[in-house]
Amino acid sequence: MTVGLMVTCLNDALFPDTGKAVVRLLRRLGVEVAFPAAQTCCGQPMVNTGYLDEAVPLLRNHLDAFAGCEAIVAPSGSCAGSVRHQHRLVAERANDPGLVRAVEAAPPVYELTEYLVDVLGVTDVGAYFPHRVTYHPTCHSLRMLGVGDRPTRLLKAVRGLRLEELPGAAECCGFGGTFAVKNSETSIAMGNDKARHVRGTGAEVLVAGDNSCLMHIGGLLSRQRSGVRVMHLAEVLARTEPIVSGSERAADDRSAGSAPTVTR
Q1: What is the per-residue burial (b if ≥16 Cβ within 10 Å, else e) of 201-236?
Q2: How far apart are CA 194 and CA 137, in angstroms?
Q3: Strand 132-135 relative to strand 109-111: parallel, antiparallel, unpaired?
Q4: Which domains does the chain show, CATH number per domain?
Q5: Where are the residues of the annotated region Disordered (predicted)?
Q6: Of 46, 85, 95, 155, which cross-links 51 as Cys (Cβ 3.0–4.6 Å)?
Q7: Looking at residues 195-206, what average pLDDT do you find?
């Protein structure tokens, strides 16, 4: 199966390592990954602020860019949810039956954990991440897509990882796209509540499936000098255990020092 990576605007512009991690992870699992260079914004910002007509050109571009793919995978519950649920609304509003039919015939779009668990049928992806982690379920993945416990099942199978339960996990972090700008005081208050809960877990790393939420919570954790870093789930799942060659192992036996390692 050829899977098209919908990397999302935010990841493309600010968090390219997330897209690279998705490619490494899927290829490790035997999936052929394509990256349609013509992809742009899925149109979610326009739809969420009421500009559905302005989203039509972006919808058409999305359909054209991913036309040759059998499925689409996105490292974002927010953007995956937008394509799955909002594109039809945009097409219907445009009063274009042909566009509606094109949306219905488009390749299915999956949030990353949905694709791993439901399509590939795996929860142990061979990852290694020896750190204390807590997980924040983002609003769109939790409510719009209903990903449920798929992300935590994947995390629990990561070797070396200790997963700490996050109090108030289902509560919104306060980002909400333009909400964070239009209602900044409320957004910050919600984010501070989330950051407080994160600190209370004692985790070294906060993990989520959307970098937009991690950017918001991570900024607050950084300002609070919490020492907690944030990572996208894909980057955790793409990590593997260091490989020590035979010569390095022999050298380690002869020396008390540490042998260099090569990481896949």
Answers
A1: bebbbbbbbbbbbbbbbbebbeeeebebebbbbbbb
A2: 11
A3: unpaired
A4: 2-119 (3.40.50), 132-237 (3.40.50)
A5: 245-264
A6: 46
A7: 98
Q: Where does the pLDDT of residue 246 fall: very low under 50, low under 70, confident under 90, or very high at 90 and above?
A: low
Query: In the structure encoding, which two tokens stand for residue 212, read together?
Result: 């937009």
pTM: 0.88
pLDDT at 1 over 80: no
Angle (deg, nearest 10), helices 56-65 and 97-105? 40
187/224 Cα distance (integer angstroms)? 16
Distance of CA 111 to the CA centre of its chain: 7
Q: Which of 67, 69, 78 is nearest to 42 (CA)?
A: 78
Report the b/e string of 168-188 with b at 16+ CB within 10 A.
eeeebbbbbeebbeeeeeebb
Task: Let me know how long the chain is.
Answer: 264
Backbone angles phi, psi at 58, to 5 degrees: -70, -35
